[in-house]
Design goal:
The protein is α/β, with parallel strands linked by helices and 276 residues long. It contains seven helices and nine strands. α5 links the parallel β7 and β8. It binds hypoxanthine.
Length: 276
Amino acid sequence: MSEKTKVLESVKFFKKEFPEFKPDALLVLGSGLGEPVQSLSPIMTIRYDQIPNFPESTVIGHSGSLCFCQVKKLKLAVLNGRAHAYEGYSPGEVVRPVRVMKLLGAGSLILTNAAGSLNPLFNCGSIMSIADHINLTGENPLVGQNYEEWGPMFPDMSRVYCPELISIAQAAGLKLGIALKSGVYVGIKGPSLETPAETRAFRMMGGDAIGMSTVLEVIAARHMGMRILGLSCLTNQNLPDCMAETSHEEILKVACSINKNLTKLLLEILNNLEPE
Ligand code: HPA
């Protein structure tokens, strides 16, 4: 079955089972960052395994459910947990939920992730708005047959992250006293963490944060013309000259501690997001 058929099957499922569900925006919550959904008072929750062709996350810290929420006039879909390329999922599978939500109406995409800080000035526990990214996963969801009705074969990537959404996020941070950093996210496939030499190379390339998600979803979303905001929660410092041991458990622990600020920030951003 082609990727397009699988995406359209999921879309059909939603149109049949939830005809009222036409999201304006999509929020993706990353590893250990599921708490904001509770403050969004979901109207409905559905597990990924109940949705045709939705890839299930197999990693601890990802719950794997989709929620429908209403924030003022904004209809919001929330993906709590995502599939990663390091779990063995194909790029098409990783980005499938984003494509499905776009075809159901979502014009804006807010992605969150847990990331290591490559910038010595960006402390652990802070949140970085993604200004740009470097895709080092070695994968691309657009490889193969292009579906012109979804987007062009060679989408422009000169301005991927939406300046207007970044301004809304920065203003929200200022209002709440949460100083948002701004920087370049390096996306790797993982699942191994970086050696000191890799960390040094990624920093020299211009990276400020590094993680194992986001870039593939962003490429697919850009291809389909979505407005994109990316927020990286910096869970560990990843500095070549004072490399500290990092574990997934430690990353999840710090991610959990960032949930409070992330929740406040997201609520403020969503309150200022107009349905298109
Ligand atoms: N490297 C890669 N991915 C990550 C890191 C890191 O240091 N922290 C959280 N996700």
